[in-house]
Amino acid sequence: MSHSKILILDFGSQVTQLIARRVREAHVFCEVHPCDVSSDWVREYAKDGNLKGVILSGSHASVYEVDDRAPDAVFELGIPVLGICYGMQTMAQQLGGKVEAGTTREFGYAEVRAHGHTELLKGIEDFATPEGHGMLKVWMSHGDKVTQMPEGFKVMASTPACPIAGMADEARRFYAVQFHPEVTHTVQGQALLNRFVLDICQARPDWIMGDYIEEAVAKIREQVGDEEVILGLSGGVDSSVAAALIHRAIGDKLTCVFVDHGLLRLNEGDMVMEMFVGKLHAKVIRVDASDLFLGKLAGVSEPEAKRKIIGGLFVDVFKEQAAKLKAADGGKDGNDGRPAVKGATFLAQGTIYPDVIESGGAKSKKAVTIKSHHNVGGLPEQLGLKLLEPLRELFKDEVRELGVALGLPREMVYRHPFPGPGLGVRILGEVKKEYADLLRRADAIFIEELRNFTDESGKTWYDLTSQAFTVFLPVKSVGVMGDGRTYDYVVALRAVQTSDFMTADWAELPYALLKKVSGRIINEVRGINRVTYDVSSKPPATIEWE
């Protein structure tokens, strides 16, 4: 099935993927590509007739600092174009307008007045002035501004500091805004993008995860054929959904390797095995490598060093298992007695679209690399395996939808994020088995009570928070229990609310909930006598402590 599609050209903004997420939330397929693709590439991309519109992203740079331009073909295809921030400026400049460095810069919240009843903003407003002017609450982040519009454009929006905060050429269906509709601070941002994508571009809202399964299964079967696949199963959302999808497509031709590094949540390993072996009847090899990991972490306290050790060991253990499977002759795998995969040729990974963008991958060469993601590394080449990434085009919320559609328990699919190094980065300083055991039990109590407590609407506090966990502090404090003195460890509770994890507010949990959690941890987890609550927002703090 061919989908309508929107092309997003990335000029290097750190929030370009938010544009893509908003378009996907309108159930329209879109892709992010670098702004320096050629006009020939754009024409080829549009040749199938499914390209309904183009969005030009913002940038961290000024139009005077870089020479990044949209391919001329974008303005020659006869389809709608929306420029955002830098995208507005390059549209103006390329079509004959003028852009100048502003004497007053705008960063942060602003109120924009809408003009002219354009198709893009018609009926979209946050409030009206006494004079009847529609106003929008938006997020600005610019220094340069358009001072002269190209021929055929009219003013669509303005602020006192930016008289041309939006412009439109409705004959050609070219629109541009100086503010950022993709960020949550722009209250009507989703409505604006929906208007552009669905009404102006006339894109079909046919990007639906329930329908996607059939397409994905067919693609996997075509790519894999009669060959075998290995997948590293972590218990996280991405690898779990990838495993379920691939298993739906090829059944026993998939073998999962689950490495238990001793830093998982309470009973997590057993739950993973129950789900994938007990319910999905998938082939899973469970490797208990906890002694190896904890041994290598002994005496190491620096966070990045811990991450590198855990990541490196995970790769080593997985490579060892994958090599055995690749060379297997169909004998028993020595774990659960089930036949090993014979001659595996594919390595499956739970890579999702943000991994590709954040790693500065091929889809977004202009983006500044934020992190190096383990799913985009050279492991397939090292193992001599071909790569299978069935979730590569999906955002996290789409992966969750897909997981539910595949029949995975909602509780598993909508679990809060858990770092790859596990409890290794939630134990401050050196990692010890004693610390991990204490933290596991304390964290389980916190999560259990978050699921038990609800707000006035009946929603659990687990669902009301975006991420919640417990941190082990390797310090002791004096306490009193019964008639005796205690000298035990301290833990910190952390719960945040966020829509994009780029910024986050600490969750204002009810005192009754905090009291219950603290009381249970101190009474039930011997070795902890003090519980604190982290009230730091991001920024300046990060969500995880390490």
Description of the structure:
- Helix content is 32%, strand content 24%.
- With 546 residues, the protein is of the alpha/beta class.
- It folds into three domains: 5-200, Class I glutamine amidotransferase (GATase) domain (Rossmann fold, 3-Layer(aba) Sandwich); 209-411, Rossmann fold; 432-533, GMP Synthetase, Chain A, domain 3, CATH 3.30.300.
- The strands form three sheets. Strands 2-1-3-4-10-9-8-5-7-6 form a ten-stranded mixed beta sheet, with helices on both faces.
- Strand 6 and strand 7 (134-148) form a beta hairpin.
- Helix 5 (209-224) packs across helix 6, helix 8 packs antiparallel against helix 9 and helix 14 packs antiparallel against helix 16.
- The radius of gyration is 26 Å and the shape is globular.
Structural class: alpha/beta
Count of DSSP H/I helices: 16
Portion in strands: 15-25%
List how many beta strands DSSP finds.
19
Rounded radius of gyration (Å): 26 Å
Q: Regarding CATH, which class of the largest domain?
A: Alpha Beta
Largest sheet: 10 strands, mixed
Strand order of the largest sheet: 2-1-3-4-10-9-8-5-7-6
Mean of residue pLDDT values? 89
* Amino-to-carboxy terminus distance: 44 Å
When the domains are counted, the total is: 3
Say which CATH homologous superfamily of the largest domain is assigned. HUPs
Topology:
Elements: E1 5-10, H1 16-25, E2 29-34, H2 39-46, E3 51-56, E4 81-84, H3 86-94, E5 98-114, E6 127-128, E7 134-148, E8 154-158, E9 166-169, E10 174-177, H4 189-200, H5 209-224, E11 229-233, H6 237-250, E12 254-260, H7 268-279, E13 283-288, H8 290-297, H9 303-326, E14 346-348, H10 353-358, H11 379-383, E15 386-388, H12 396-405, H13 410-413, H14 433-452, H15 461-464, E16 467-481, E17 484-497, E18 505-506, H16 511-524, E19 528-533
Parallel strand pairs: 1-2, 1-3, 3-4, 4-10, 11-12, 11-14, 12-13, 14-15, 17-19
Antiparallel strand pairs: 5-7, 5-8, 6-7, 8-9, 9-10, 16-17, 17-18
